[in-house]
Structure formats: C-alpha cells, structure tokens
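Closing statement on the iron/sulfur cluster sub-project.
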Amino acid sequence: MANNKVLFRIQRFDPEKDEKPHHQDFEIELAPGATILKTLHQIRAEQDPTLALRYSCGSAICGSCAMKINGHAILACKTQVSECVRDGTVRVAPIGNLKILRDLVVDIEPFWESLGKVKPYLMPKGAAPDRERTQTPAQFGSIDPSTTCILCAACYSDCNALEVDPSFVGPASLAKAHRFIFDSRDAARQQRLREISQRTGVWDCTHCGECSTRCPTETKPLERIEEIRVQAMADGHHGNAGARHALGFRESVGKRGFLDENWLALRSVGFFNLPGLISLMPVGLRMMIRGKMPPLIPHTIDKVDEVKKIFARFEELRK
Ligand code: SF4
Ligand code: SF4
Ligand code: FES
C-alpha cells in the first residue's frame, strides 16, 4: 500500500440484513489534512453511498459526529486521519453505551432522557425582570467550562460506570447539572444538589477519568463532578450512600491510617439502615465464597503515621 493510502476498517450494521455488526474495509487515497468526517464522505462518494453516519456542522459545534476511532470516542469533524492511523489502518465504529440503529448511527434517545433528569434549564426566583438577568464576569467564570458542552455524547459513550449500570445519569448530564447548580441566577441549587446526591447521581461516578479525556471541549465532566461533590458536602447533603462512603473513607484512612473495608461498607449504607444492611448480605456471601472477603481485623500498615500526617495536612488546608 502506498504511503498516502489508508485502510478504513468500518463497523457496518444493517438491521434488515444483519444479525450482528461486522467490519468492512475501504482503501482510500488520503487527501492532505483530511479529517475523519471528510474521509467518510469520500468513501460514501467514491465507494459506498449506503454507509450511514450522523453529522451536521462539520465545525465541532453541533456535536452530532461523535464516533469511536480505534476504540475511543472522538469528534469525526475535529480529528485528522493522520493522528489516527495505526499500522496503516483506522478502525471506525459507532459510539458506545447506545443501541446501534445502522452503521455509525446510534439511538441517542437514552442520552437525551438522562439529560432531562437533571432539569437542564434555569429555575430563577421571582418574575422575569424587564431586562436580562445579569451576571458578573466572575459569576460566569464558575460555569464557563460547563457551558461549553456541545452534547456530543463522547463522554457518555466511553463511561465505564454507565456500561455497568445504564441507570447512572452519566457525565454529560452531571456537567449540565453543574452548569445550573453554580449559575448565580438559579434559585434551585439545594434542590438540585439533594436530587443529584441520590443513587444514580453524582456519587455513582467511579473516577475513571475517561469522560474528561474524551471530551472535545473545556467541559471536562470529571472536574465538574468533583466540584458538585465538594459543594454537596459543604451544603450538608450527607444523607446518602455516596457522601457517607466519602466521609467514612476519610475517617478510616485519615484517623486510623488504613482502610477498614468491612466497616466502610456498613458506614456507607448506614449502620441503622436495616434494608440497606440486608442488601449487603448477598455481596458479602459471594465475596466469602470466592475468598475475597477483607480480613475482619484489618492489617496495620508500615509508616501509618506518615498517612495520618498527610490527612492532618489535608484537614488544615481544608479549614
Ligand atoms: S470519570 Fe465518572 S462519569 Fe467520567 S467516565 Fe469515568 S465513571 Fe463515567
Ligand atoms: S461533556 Fe464533553 S464529551 Fe460530554 S457531551 Fe459535553 S462536550 Fe461532549
Ligand atoms: S459535524 Fe458538528 S460537531 Fe462534528
């Protein structure tokens, strides 16, 4: 294959013919500076007009052209092919965590539904003013990153927590929640924080960081999730498993210098939460059968005083 030729290995799926997705290879003469989107157009024009994909603006604004390249979500119109060639090949597939409708087109409806759950609109106090509701530059600064989201669903596609639990609200929705929680013109901050602290909300994120790595804008959902958690704790929204888990982790590691996992599990569900405690029993049983149960009396660790000192320093900084 000449140097300017690239193999596009594209995942195809026709619901009328195929039982499951398969791959099709297209050899393409690469135009200088070509983006993934432009090259897919070239394939459609020169080799197969039936290839289905979603796009609109071509300028990284509308968010409709997200797809997986070499296994990770990107914006096709923003990414040059030259950045993606591995051993002469570019692997193209639809974004993940959503049902494939045809080729590279997915059913985006669950993404919109998750967004609706965080009430993605301003809930201000009082009647509308005669003129616009104003903000200072500093007030806008706190929501500036989260306003840049273009709803491309690249983060939703690659979120590991969503893959395991589709009821998790997901990174884009949490970033959208951030945009209103920290908006100086919104009057529903406490209601929003209370709702988002429940199961399937802000504490269900497992910190893998994929969302921020994949995000093509400055939204960077994981950073916004951390800001929401800090605000929820500061405003006293502790009556939920996620907050109790975070507090318990600090108490165990910070005060004792090691993680007491059995105690932390009880602390997270709540010591007096009988249904919650009962719900832990099958997990505990499975762990016991597989020999994964943490020891009832946790081991002490070397240099435990060093760990305690780090936490004491955190505590000083926090104050
Ligand atoms: S950091 Fe959290 S929200 Fe982001 S991809 Fe990972 S689990 Fe999902
Ligand atoms: S947060 Fe980033 S990756 Fe997620 S939908 Fe918004 S712009 Fe796309
Ligand atoms: S086509 Fe609009 S963001 Fe790529």
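The mean pLDDT is 94. With this model delivered, the sub-project is considered complete and its resources will be redirected to Aim 3.
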